Amino acid sequence: MVNSAPRLPTEEPARLRRRPSIVLLFVVSLAVSGVAGLLSHAAGNNVPGAILTGGGAFAGALGLLLAVAHYAGAPGQD
User: Fold this and answer.
1) Structural domain spans, the chain
2) How does pLDDT run across 13-70, given as a tens digit for each residue?
3) By three-state DSSP, how is residue 71 classified?
4) Closest Cα partner for 52 from 44, 41, 62?
5) pLDDT at 37
6) Count of CB atoms situated within 10 Å of the CB of 36
7) Counting Cβ atoms within 10 Å, is residue 42 exposed (0-12), middle (13-18) or buried (19+)?
8) How does DSSP classify residue 76?
9) Does 78 score more than 60 pLDDT?
10) Exposed, middle or buried by CB within 10 Å (0-12, 13-18, 19+), for 29?
11) C-alpha closest to that of 25 among 66, 78, 53, 74
12) 22 half-sphere exposure, CB direction, 13 A CA radius
């Protein structure tokens, strides 16, 4: 008897196709936050203040990049 069960699509889920672009957004945000923290410390702020500046830069950069990726239709998004 021939198995006539329908085959499932072999295409990977959308969340797996989107993963490289999300990782890239995190890496760019980390770079932005590192530069912001170093510049803040070089400008004379203490270390805790520079860490807070870097954290704020990370949150701002990641939020902005995620919004741009969402509205621009980053590769791999449905």
Assistant:
1) 15-72
2) 666 667 788 899 999 999 999 999 999 999 999 999 999 999 999 999 999 999 998 8
3) helix
4) 41
5) 97
6) 19
7) exposed
8) T
9) no
10) buried
11) 66
12) 9
DSSP state of 55: H
Of 35, 26, 16, whose CA–CA distance to 59 is shortest?
26
Distance CA 23, CA 12 (A): 18
With 0-12 / 13-18 / 19 or more C-beta atoms within 10 angstroms meaning exposed / middle / buried, residue 51 is middle
**Count of residues in the chain:** 78
Instruction: Identify the CA nearest to 69 among candidates 36, 39, 33, 26.
Output: 26
The pLDDT of residue 71 is 86
